Amino acid sequence: MKLKKNLVFIGMMGSGKSSIGSLVANKLKLNFIDIDNEIENNLKIKIKKIFEVKGEAYFRKIEEQITLKKLKLCSTVISLGGGAFENNIIRKEVVKNHLSFWLKWDYKILLERIKNSRKRPLAMNSTENELIDLMKKRSNFYSKASYEIKCDNLTKNEIMNKVIKIYEKN
Ligand code: S3P
Questions:
Q1: Which atom of ligand 1 is nearest to the CA of 63?
Q2: Residue to mutate (ligand 1; options 9, 10, 13; most atoms within 8 A of CB)
Q3: SS3 readout for the chain
């Protein structure tokens, strides 16, 4: 095993953190963890329902706990929720101790992907302008990632290969 650090995928909802993360993990024969799935499995309730019943602040607390716990693993591919990097503690831990990849897309592409999502409470309850403002605000946080992958015009396999090339240099 080459690397002890975790490979962490960050970026907006719809940026492909889970699908690219799982492709990379398969190729490198590493374990893959999707934090949204972990939260749903732990609480036995869908994220949409957590937002409805308990509110976003509660979701963020659980997201922080589970994310920090999973980051203690080694050599694991982890895809974070789109809002996780707004959390100072998570962001600092990832930036300091892990190899992180921001899957960066044109705002318009992301908007098209998420605006009709039925499982993403933030996308469901925001206007297009609010989502664009959110993407702009979050870009400042995402830009702290170790690597930025410009994904527009790339296939999933091409994105995966870029990540693997970077991994191999580390
Ligand atoms: C969120 C993104 C979602 C999920 C939750 C909140 C966000 O994850 O964590 O709905 O704040 O952007 P994905 O980025 O995997 O969709």
A1: 9
A2: 13
A3: CCCCCCEEEECCCCCCHHHHHHHHHHHHCCEEEEHHHHHHHHHCCCHHHHHHHHCHHHHHHHHHHHHHHHHCCCCEEEECCCCHHHCHHHHHHHHHHCEEEEEECCHHHHHHHHCCCCCCHHHHCCCHHHHHHHHHHHHHHHCCCCEEEECCCCCHHHHHHHHHHHHHHC
Threshold 0.85, pTM exceeds: yes
Kindly list the protein residues whose Cβ atom lies closer than 6 A to any atom of ligand 1: 13, 17, 36, 47, 81-83, 120-122
Q: pLDDT digit string (tens) for 52-89?
A: 999 999 999 999 999 999 999 999 999 999 999 999 99
Distance (Å) from CA 64 to ligand 1 centroid: 13
Residue with the nearest Cα to atom 8 of ligand 1? 81
